[in-house]
Amino acid sequence: MSPTRQNTVKSQSKGEKREGGVGFAIRSNLLKDLEQPQSINDRMMKLRIPLSCGRFVTVFSIYAPTLSANEENIHAFYEKLRSSILSVPLNEKLVVLGDFNARAGRDNSAWNVLGRFGIGKVNKNGLHLLQMCSELGLAVGNTFFHHKLKHKVTWIHPRSKQGHMIDLVLTRKSDLQDLCSLRVLRGADCDTDHKMVRVKFKFRVRTRKRSAGVRVPPKIDVGQLKQPQVSQLFRDRCSNIYFEGSWQSLREGLYKTGVDVLGFKRAKKKLEKVYRAQKAELQKELRRLKDTWWSNLSEEIQASYERKDIKNLYGLLRQAFGPQSS
Fold first, then answer.
1. Three-class DSSP category at 146
2. Coil, helix or strand for 323?
């Protein structure tokens, strides 16, 4: 831990060889409210940050092996990262950021963990990353923001001078709405050949409606009063209620009569949760099919344009935009 005037840097590195090394730079005035960062290994650290309503966000800082590393080391890295992410409770927010040394590409039709604004082609390390994201329900945040290419590229290959997006920010797909902005700051001098990536989050935390263990009393089924026979029976029974002149006594008598005559409302069926889950899955599949349809139609339009097949081109455009109004 090394303090500066306003910040404290917490890092983890591997002895003198320094093949790996990760860390967090934290404002010193925030340290009293934070748990101590945990070192996982020389390529991973995590920090748990409290939010409101007793919720937390767990942030992982990582440095993945390069493409030239042997496959065993790459596999071991992703297995450790996968198990570390799985240890985070599902009700906690999650952010994984760092140098992944991986090109995820832009094929969001094949990989729904990508947005529409990826760059380049996927490489071997990128496949490891995409497979892990698919398994764990994560999304590559960099690919969900539309910026100029120079504000996406985080590293430039020294020989080919080709720009790549390898410094990435991952979060749960269900929490993508928490991600406000993400872009490269080209002017930041960080004493490295990588560009600085700035990401802004606005974590949305839902308040708990009731504490665990509080049982809601069942409700009387007043809907039964719509039936004339039941309504008449209820009135007759109420007229015979004996009470001792106190409101409490009358209340208890009315409640007991209501329970005897009307009964309780039926509890919601347990299948309702299953129905909601299946409905959500169906909507997800419909969105995927819609995206696939648009992607295929776009490719057909492009192919017709390149073949100069004007008739087919206009037919496809009518499918996309509908008939022109006169």
1. coil
2. coil
